[in-house]
Specification:
Oligomer: heterodimer
Strand order of the largest sheet of chain A: 1-2
Shape of chain A: elongated
Largest sheet of chain B: none
Distance between the termini of chain A: 39 Å
Number of strands of chain B: 0
Order of helices and strands of chain A: HHHHEEHHH
Number of helices of chain B: 4
Largest interface: A-B, 60 and 57 residues
Shape of chain B: elongated
Strand content of chain B: under 5%
Largest sheet of chain A: 2 strands, antiparallel
Distance between the termini of chain B: 84 Å
Helix content of chain B: over 70%
Structural class of chain B: mainly alpha
Number of strands of chain A: 2
Radius of gyration of chain B: 23 Å
Chain lengths: 249, 114
């Protein structure tokens, strides 16, 4: 690893006992990114823990899956809620969210390839992989925009919420899918994650711009790509958990 | 334009590290396969086996998280003390998650009587 790393771990002209060696063998920026991500993980955990508490305190649907109907008496089965795909009128449970997961994992792969190219000081390769990563991020955000729009407007068949009333779609107060908390958690958890993806796309674009302008060539290393890469992988990591706990379980 | 050439940095571009790139694509392949398996379980294992489904999903999530954090975020190759300073706080978070889910199930039990 040491042969490809461009990180300066030993500060020049300073002794080991005078701050000459970075703690934990990582540069200041990378270390702080790690601890920022740890604190960010706490925030996401807070949302997911609250979700776990509220969901497990609601009764689960007991009957046959085929006979499932939306009701605010029990928590809905996720695959019965998320089964629409843009432009075609089919029941395809979880297919669209599967595509979104695939897009985000692929953009994580292109990010790590950009980091690898940065280690080699290969500017054209960094530019290429950063562009793919940004494209992946924008694709994911677009998919999420459609997902939200569909969730808010509802399906063409609304279900009875209370006796004698019908409600289509969802807002923070009520929804057609289940208890009000269900939609609230959907908005807060996927919204908070989506905002992270948006910030990540902005940061990725900044890195791409700096790369094109030759900032990192002049600096002599591409460590910034690595640091923003950590953030981008974290966003992917959070989605892995959201996917499991919100869509699959 | 002579002054620009003077300040232009001298860059040595190294050839692609094929071994490393191959390893990264292997990890990507594993992530893709695990996600495909999750779909197989979601539609292959009936909803009656709810506990089994949940534990399979959690196990697969941990596998995916391990590969993303270990290989993509490179944590597996960092100093031991850095690995532990990230993992130990998360242990408490996982404990909190388990505790609150059990708390929620207890609340659900109590609600059945009122």
């Amino acid at each position: 690893m040491a042969s490809t790393s461009t990180t300066t771990v030993q500060a020049p002209g300073r002794s080991v006992w005078d701050g000459g060696v970075s703690p934990m063998g990582a540069s200041y920026g990378k270390l702080m990114m790690w601890f920022f991500l740890l604190s960010d993980a706490f925030t996401f955990s807070a949302l997911l823990i609250t979700y776990g508490l509220i969901r497990s305190s609601h009764s689960a649907y007991e009957g046959a899956v085929e006979a499932f109907k939306f009701s605010d008496a029990y928590w809905p089965i996720p695959e019965k809620v998320f089964e629409a795909v843009p432009f075609i009128d089919v029941h395809a449970p979880l297919v669209f969210v599967g595509i979104m997961t695939f897009v985000l994992i692929m953009s994580s792969v292109t990010m790590v390839l950009a980091v690898e190219a940065g280690h080699r000081m290969d500017r054209p390769a960094v530019e290429k992989w950063m562009l793919w990563t940004i494209l992946g991020g924008i694709t994911f955000l677009s998919c999420q925009a459609w997902e939200w729009s569909h969730f808010i407007h509802g399906t063409h068949v609304g279900d009875a919420v209370a006796e004698g009333t019908k409600f289509f779609g969802a807002n923070l107060a009520q929804n057609q899918y289940g208890p009000p908390d269900f939609a609230a958690f959907f908005f807060f958890i996927t919204g908070f994650h989506g905002f992270h993806v948006f910030s990540g796309v902005c940061l990725n674009f900044l890195i791409y711009y700096n790369t094109v302008m030759g900032v990192y060539d002049r600096r002599g290393h591409y460590e910034m790509v690595e640091k923003v890469g950590l953030y981008w992988h974290f966003v992917d990591l959070v989605w892995v958990f959201v996917f499991t706990f919100f869509y699959l379980v | 334009m002579a002054h620009i050439e003077e300040t232009a940095p001298r860059i040595t571009v190294l050839p692609p590290n094929r071994e490393k790139i191959k390893k990264l694509w292997t990890v990507a392949g594993i992530l893709g396969i695990v996600t495909a398996l999750e779909f197989a379980v979601a539609f292959g294992v009936p909803h009656e086996f709810k506990t089994l489904r949940v534990w399979i999903f959690i196990g697969m999530t941990i596998v995916k998280a391990g590969y993303i954090v270990g290989e993509f975020m490179h944590l597996r190759h960092e100093a031991k003390v850095l690995i532990w300073s990230i993992l130990i706080p998360m242990v408490f978070v996982v404990w909190m998650l388990v505790a609150f889910v059990y708390e929620g199930m207890a609340i659900a039990d109590i609600r059945k009587f009122f």
